[in-house]
Amino acid sequence: FFHPSPSRNNHSPSTSHHNHFRRNFYTTSMPKVSQRKLIIHSSNVAAMAMLVESDSEDNSDLEEFYYYSLHLLQKRYLKPRHSAAQLDPRYDMLALQELPDSSFLQLFRMRFPCFLNLLQLLQPNPIFYNNSHNPQRELPIQLAIAICRLGSNGNGSAVYRLRNLFQVGYGTINLYTCRVITAVYEFRSSMITWPTKLSD
Fold it and tell me: Which spans does this entry mark as compositional bias, Low complexity (predicted)?
């Protein structure tokens, strides 16, 4: 199971992460295999930082880095049978765990231990598994997409950035959200009760 990273800081994603990008990325030419992992990881953090600052207009540097990293990653696939839509998802749990506590709370409206508890609660639900050779996307990814969508301000910008971050379409975002809502709703009888005389 996923465990929180022991080293977290309280720096803003747009400052400390951006300085990290400039030190490790802009001096990189055509990436090798190990460098490609670094670029993917850095673009993950940049995309989530843009999600956190979705209401801010002062994130042009992050967007410039993010789309430049996608451009480099796309250049690794030179054969005609590949396309940009077939790139690996720009997201992993490591980047999620490395978010500062304040940024994780702002992005997902819950703290990371609560995210793990909810993940464990929903994991046995068969709605997240297909009885076929085509499995669904990992539950942590579906849950992250859903709760980020539910916690957005509804202006559409967060959904647009979710699409770029997770490499999914708008319909897939809605599908994951509906699955999570359906699974959580099944716990209504055990978690939602009428107050009793002993209740505060």
Answer: 1-16
